[in-house]
Write the structure tokens for this entry.
Amino acid sequence: MATITTYLVAAAVAALVLSLPFGGKSRVGSVLRRFAACCGILALLPAIVVSIVTAPSPAGRPGISDVGCGAESLLALGVLSLVAWAFLVIRKRLAGGSVKQRAPMMRRYRHRADNDLLEFLDRFNRGDRDA
């Protein structure tokens, strides 16, 4: 298990480092960043699940096994995530067009995303060195 976790962490770091030169708008860069995030989550997931399932039982509750306490914790986490999801859905329906309000703000910063390494190299090779 430790070997798989080591390989997953190494793959996550390698994919993240390889995605950096491609910039924010590149499809290859976004795929590499998603792969890095997936590998990072998969590397940490067994440790988190094992620590929740094998949590020590509370001192004041005799008769509950360690696995039962861990299952209760997982159930509580699932219920909390459903409550948070419902809250976000309700807030989105009440807010209405909050996405449209962000468009003018995002337009101000759009030029920063266009200055990536590949575009610079393309302009440099064309001879447009002052841009």
Q: What stands out?
A: The chain has a mean pLDDT of 76. The helical segments are 2-19, 27-53, 66-95, 98-108, 110-113, 117-126. The radius of gyration is 23 Å.
